[in-house]
Write a structure and sequence with these properties.
Helix content: 25-40%
CATH architecture: 2-Layer Sandwich
GO molecular function: lyase activity
Modified residues (O-(phosphoribosyl dephospho-coenzyme A)serine): 14
Number of strands: 4
CATH topology: Ribosomal Protein S5, domain 2
Organism: Maledivibacter halophilus
Strand content: 15-25%
Strand order of the largest sheet: 1-2-4-3
Number of helices: 2
InterPro entries: CitD (IPR006495), Mal_deCO2ase/Cit_lyase_ACP (IPR023439)
Family: Belongs to the CitD family.
Order of helices and strands: EEEHEH
Length: 98
């Protein structure tokens, strides 16, 4: 899936994550993470973000995430929403994929 514009999903509330995705002018995936639980769960949060991007077939993207203790299901939902908005395909999500 191709990123066409900046997309955002999530809030700064407790147990949520704010995710902003934008096209990477270079090649590859870059993830910038700030989290209140980064020492304990930073690697798991990055894995959840990366797995979701791969499932959506996103290759060249910059992800900026500010986490407030979100569960994996919330992380995945926020990444999916931000990507779909950035790809301008908000109404085309295949719910069976997830």
């Amino acid at each position: 899936m191709q990123i066409k514009k900046t997309g955002m999903a999530g809030t700064m509330e407790s147990s949520d994550i704010n995710v902003v995705v934008e096209k990477n002018q270079e090649k590859g995936i870059k993830i910038y993470l700030k989290s209140s639980v980064e020492k304990q769960f930073g690697n798991q949060i990055r894995k959840a973000i990366l797995k979701t991007l791969k499932e959506l077939e996103v290759t060249d993207v910059v992800v900026r995430a500010i986490d407030r203790g979100a569960l994996d299901c919330t992380i995945r939902a926020r990444v999916q929403s931000a990507v779909m908005r950035a790809a301008m395909k908000e109404n085309e999500i295949d719910w069976g994929l997830f």
